[in-house]
């Protein structure tokens, strides 16, 4: 499933998105996150041990909702499956997101993160583009 060209701008940043995962008891858990799109997957970066990390590890599915800040009736809902989880390049990735969203990177080249960073690559399996 691909993201329509008409709505790619919503996931190419810098718009904070809502990431919903599933708790152990089946209830949804939603967190505002930064993300980007590599043309195939939505990339979400987090630290090991956070609730979204635990949820995505145990139940590798998520929904991402992004609402256009200029038009709340234009939005993109992506239901997806975790296709890959990697720590490789995760510090560099959070730096890229930091620059995209704030204009600043978090870590200097070679500097380690105090937490283990991880990238979740989420493959869209159902996409709703509205507006």
Quick tags:
131 residues; alpha+beta; Pnp Oxidase, Chain A; 7-stranded antiparallel beta sheet; 2 helices; globular
CATH class label: Mainly Beta
Named CATH architecture? Roll
The gyration radius over C-alpha positions equals 14 Å
Specify the CATH homologous superfamily: Electron Transport, Fmn-binding Protein, Chain A
Strand content: 35-45%
Q: Biggest β-sheet: count, sense, barrel?
A: 7 strands, antiparallel
Average pLDDT level: 95
Number of domains: 1
Q: Spans of 5+ residues with little confidence (pLDDT < 50)?
A: none
Number of strands: 7
What is the percent of helical residues?
10-25%
| Number of helices in the DSSP assignment | 2
By CATH, the topology is Pnp Oxidase, Chain A
Task: Report the span from N to C terminus.
Answer: 19 Å
Q: Helix/strand/pairing class, anyone?
A: alpha+beta
How are helices and strands ordered from N to C? EEEEHEEHE
The backbone outline, from C-alpha atoms, is globular
Report on this structure:
By secondary structure, the protein is of the alpha+beta class. It has helices at 51-58, 90-102; strands at residues 17-22, 28-33, 35-37, 42-47, 61-67, 75-86, 117-130. It has a 7-stranded antiparallel β-sheet with strand order 2-1-5-6-7-4-3. The model has no long low-confidence stretch (mean pLDDT 95).
Brief digest:
The protein has helices at residues 51-58, 90-102; strands at residues 17-22, 28-33, 35-37, 42-47, 61-67, 75-86, 117-130. It is of the alpha+beta class and 131 residues long.
